[in-house]
Amino acid sequence: MKNNSVIKALRAIQYALITTICLYSAPSKSNNHKSTLAIQQQTIIVSGTITDNLAPMAGVSIMVKGKNTTTNSDYNGQYTIDASPTDILIFYFMGYKTQEIPINAQKVINVKLQEEATSLQEVKINAGYYSVKESERTGSIARITSKDIETQPVTNVLATMQGRMAGVNITQTTGVPGGGFDIQIRGRNSLRLDGNSPLYIIDGAPYASEPIGSSFTSSTTPQSTSPLNSLNPADIQSIEILKDADATAIYGSRGANGVVLITTKRGKEGKTNFTANYSNGVGQVTRFLKLMNTSQYLQMRREAYKNDGITNYPEAAYDINGNWSQNRDTDWQKELTGGTAMFTNLQTSLSGGSAQTQFILSGNYSKETTVFPGNFKYNKGNFHLNVNHQSDSKKFKINTTTSYSIQDNLLPSVDFTREAIKLPPNAPALYDINGKINWENNTFNNPLALLSGKFDSNTYDLLANSIVSYDLLKGLAIKSNFGFNDLRHEETQTLPSTRYNPSYGIGSEASSIFKNRTNRQSWIIEPQLVYNYEHTNLKINILTGATFQQQNSNQIVNSGYGFASNSLINDPAAAYQYKLRNSNQSVYKYQAFFGRINVNWKDRYIINLTGRRDGSSRFGPGKQFAVFGAAGMAWLFGNEKIIKENLPFLSFGKLRTSYGTTGNDQIGDYQYLDTYSISGSHYQGINGLAPTRLFNPDFAWETNKKIEVALEIGVLNDRIFSTVGWYKNRSSNQLVGNPLPGTTGFSEVQANLNATVENTGLEISLRTINIKTSKINWTTNLNFTQPRNKLISFPDLEGSTYKYQFEIGKPLNSTKVYKYLGLDTQSGIYQFEDVNGDQIISAGADKKYSVDLNPKFYGGLQNQLQYGPVQLDFLFQFVKQLNFNQTFSAPMPGLMINQPTAAIAHWQSAGDSEPFQIYSSGNKYNVQVANTRHAQSNAGISDASYIRLKNISLSFDLPHRWTKNIKCKVSIQGQNMLTITSYKGADPEFKTAGFLPPLRIYTSSLQLIF
């Protein structure tokens, strides 16, 4: 059924494409027929050569003004185009001044394009409710475009930004298909882990990023399912990240953690083009842990029993008591997680339009399998339509975008990474001689039995948005944004009895199923009034508007237990016991009024003022409204006469600063109210209710005060361009649960805490154009971030339950651990610092050593080289950090669990000072306790800095003489190709032990445009 739904959706996309081609081409052919008759007598062929005063220029766009006729110059800079003697030709190339040349009956027109010194500064970037020239922005905005995205073989939109933006730290949480990513923009502001997500805006409409999965069903991944998987990276035109107060304050209460603006692709004026991209590739685990082989493992096990004084091996010690082969040696990491994941992606689009109406219609299908055993796959289909229209008078404009995605993700109910690490290397074969699952005479819990458990999720996501505007008067326009989102998600985890060893005698009466259904609908209306005034040296832009938004959410989680047969496990009626685990219905209402005033004097002095009054249903009476705002200023000193005369090499210079406040309402709905839940107990045949939360009328907004100073410099016609910025953000009025005495019947009450978190940092961006000729181009981009995070204040911290988690003056992401002092060379047992000197090691008194897990710095180095039709792009990502190592997650050496090879260096006799303590089979309590403390000490944390070749792409544009009227490009891409690190774990980026790390991916692709 699920595969049928995907097939139906793809067929619908296919029919839509065919219909659009037919509808569009029919009048086009008719018009062409008529126009051909009219032009036959007056059309001439214009040709020529385009240079930049040094050499011919390839790829220059040549258009006939007011018509759909376009062409491009070839690799020799030559072009030909059909036009009438009275037409005007437009010559355009990024980085050069656009020229318009009347034909005047000429048949040969040679053109010399002049480099435009600050052309990149003239590019308009999306700032949310408005767009602004790069040179004139007063806020901090980072940006990537489709050119950066298309070189990456990834399926998640957050993956496209890794290592490419200063101040944006993104980490992958799992290598399993459909897994998620963590993103932090300029650090962690909230004490709550779930209160640090940025605001996502897709084509002008907010998109809720809260997880749609459930902890009851999401066992294969460390986090619940994210709705961001619905987005198709191939449909994205640009991504802007708003970081400072000037950029984010216009979003008020939702901008504290930054704003991610996603703009999807629009149609362009010109002839109708059909584009097809097909890619296919493979993925594998980047590297495995170095684990003991059978000889080393068995030596450890025998020594452990000897140390414990046990000479007769227990009956359950199958690995060394003779039940299992002593010679068998299996690398279980390769067996269970060493498979090859297959990647397939097909993207097609149809685009074009006239001067009044442009469109793009695209469809996408992608399939990804896993590195685990079994037939598991993640299917995703996307449909995208954008239509942009303006009236002949250009007063009325409408831009409409619709996207629909379907996901079907079938995975095993567990991640086999943990099993692969723990299994003894001499464990029996997975299959017996008959090809059936091997239980080795009921001595082996075969991990393949876990394949009978399944995780299956299905997501259907509709996004629709329209922006309508009308020019009332010169400089005065009214517009409105309308957005709608309908997301429906279902996921199921089945745990049949076949997961267990048959010797246990467990039947289908112990089988269970968990089901989660999440529905989310939201709409938004934002009427706006825009006024632009321009007179000689003065430019004024005024924006005012309002926001009306509502989101309805519904989540139901059920579980079933005990079935007559495993074949009935998906039928709720067949369950012996069927429970409602969670039922949550909520309505979130949001209302706001916002405004912006931008004043530009002589293109040198710019002031930008933004403000917003927000109202949210998440807060108590009298606390629902708050005002946020910011001021940004910029001085374009590069435009000063004295600078131009005395520093001619300086092509651009800008000093900007901003200060303001934003807010945060990421606390969930109804947190301030008295709430009740079903108790599960019955009274007189009726389900009872139990109170779950206390009323707090003073529950209000978190606030974040931000300040930034930045310097932007361009020299040598912007061939070297650098931005250096310093920021400080202070987040206060924290939304947390305040602990209550047990006598109240509640553990905590949701309230505002007068705690303050500070984030400071230095951000550096550098772009250099190393070589730029008609045939060779080499550009380098470097970004570097040095963040600092600390807790400034926390009233009565030592008297609260947070005292074990936070420390004033330390980062929020620091962890308190034991301080490891080394081995007792006489006993061979780990020793730790006794902080309070009471001769007793305890967590409360002695777990005081603080370790900062935030990155010291991070960034990326990107290079783009082009030689004629060949282009090479590669990105190195680098991070300086500490992370939990293999000691943190590895069980005690000596147990029936494999160990890292590092554990071979261990204590054996008095005087030894090896890194690892004495082996034990688990019969010595003091050794067990010491091992647990060792994992929870600074010994379990080590340097995890790395340099990674994050992405590489090599492409080749086939010559036109080979492909005639078809543009063809072939390319190969790689992701996570090479990692340079001293880290001993599986992957230095990875934060969660026991889950599959990110994969190394290779893909090849073919693009056709005609």
Description:
There is one protein chain. With 1010 residues, the protein is mainly beta. It is 10% helix and 47% strand. The protein has eleven helices and 48 strands. The strands form eleven sheets. The protein has a 22-stranded antiparallel barrel. Strands 10-15-16-13-14 form a five-stranded mixed sheet. Strands 3-2-5-6 form a four-stranded antiparallel sheet, with no helix packed on it. 41% of the residues are buried. Residues 1-41 have low confidence and may be disordered.
Write the layout of secondary structure elements.
Blueprint: H1 2-39, E1 44-51, E2 61-64, E3 70-72, E4 78-83, E5 88-92, E6 99-102, E7 111-112, E8 124-126, E9 131-133, E10 141-145, H2 146-149, E11 168-172, E12 181-185, E13 199-202, E14 205-207, E15 236-242, H3 245-248, E16 259-264, E17 270-285, H4 294-307, H5 332-337, E18 341-353, E19 357-369, E20 377-390, E21 396-412, H6 417-422, E22 454-473, E23 476-495, E24 512-535, E25 538-563, E26 575-601, E27 605-616, E28 625-635, H7 641-646, E29 650-664, E30 675-683, E31 686-693, E32 702-715, E33 720-732, E34 734-739, E35 748-753, E36 756-772, E37 776-793, E38 814-817, E39 820-823, E40 830-832, H8 843-846, E41 849-852, E42 857-867, E43 870-880, E44 882-884, H9 886-889, H10 925-935, E45 941-943, E46 946-957, H11 960-963, E47 967-981, E48 999-1009
